[in-house]
Amino acid sequence: MSGLDIPEVLNTQFACTQCHANAGWVRTARPTMRQNSSIHRLQCAQCGARIVAKASRGRTADSDDCAELREEYETLRVLQPAFAGCARYGTLEPLGFLAIANHGVMITGLFPGEELERHARKQTATGVYATFRSAGVWLRKLHGAGADGDVRQGLEVGKRIDYLKATYGSAFAADRKLRSACELFVRVGRDADTLAIGGVRIHGDFKPGNMLCSATRYVGLDIQRATTGAAVYDLAPFVNHLWLANLGGIGARARRRHELAETAFLAGFGDAIDMRTLRWAQLYFSLCYWGAYRQRGALDAVIAHWKMLPLVEKTAAQLRALT
């Protein structure tokens, strides 16, 4: 838990932005616990306005969790003009930020949508295509928000190679399949490092679980925009997580739905995507996923083998087909 009584905090420090009532916040659901935060859904007893309070779990007001939450709030404020007047695509509405009792609390309006993965399972093939195409359009709009001209930069291949070797190198060396995939990553990366690619302010954690949708609107979550980088560093993790997601069906039907979702997402993004660079970035992230799970302990090592290794093999095969 965050360690805070969120309704009590809001009732003493945050008035409803619609009716301006004080001390009228009541819970509408149990809190949702996340790795670095807790999510609380509340409603104004006077007018019925619904909000979400995201509380950091840091131990001090200067902790990384609290600082990151404040940055997320400020990012939402900066992005409001970019999505203003857009009925279909947007972000959460920032309402306020509190620093209290060694925690940060970000308050936003409630968007009554569901995660893309859950939404897609209910859809026909046509619905799956429309859903993920819209996710691609949303990301394109995010990348275009507050663009600072034509920033050209490389993929920082050396930095990625050094990270993999320093963090997971010994684990890769002990497994033939992982060793082969890592060698492919290094070889193709050195060839691609000469490319000058347009830089954008990247989302930083873009995946189907960080996008909500309703019948008419798509809203992105957990937007960081802390660094400038190649767009593939947002595209690649989304596509990887898409393949890890349950989009409905089993066997060949599930595979077709994943392929359709990927095609739709990339079509929605709409920019000229260098597929070799995308597959290379996907391989990088899939290697990171495998290594991170492998290091966590026996149970997560099983997940690394049964869930992440097939993703490594898939992305490596896709990259080899383009070299």
UniProtKB/TrEMBL annotation:
Protein name (database record): Aminoglycoside phosphotransferase
One MF annotation (Gene Ontology) recorded for this entry: transferase activity
Record field: transmembrane: none
Domain Aminoglycoside phosphotransferase span(s) in chain numbering: 67-261
InterPro entries: Aminoglycoside_PTrfase (IPR002575), Kinase-like_dom_sf (IPR011009)
Keyword Transferase attached: yes
UniProt keyword list: Transferase
Keyword Transferase carried by entry: yes
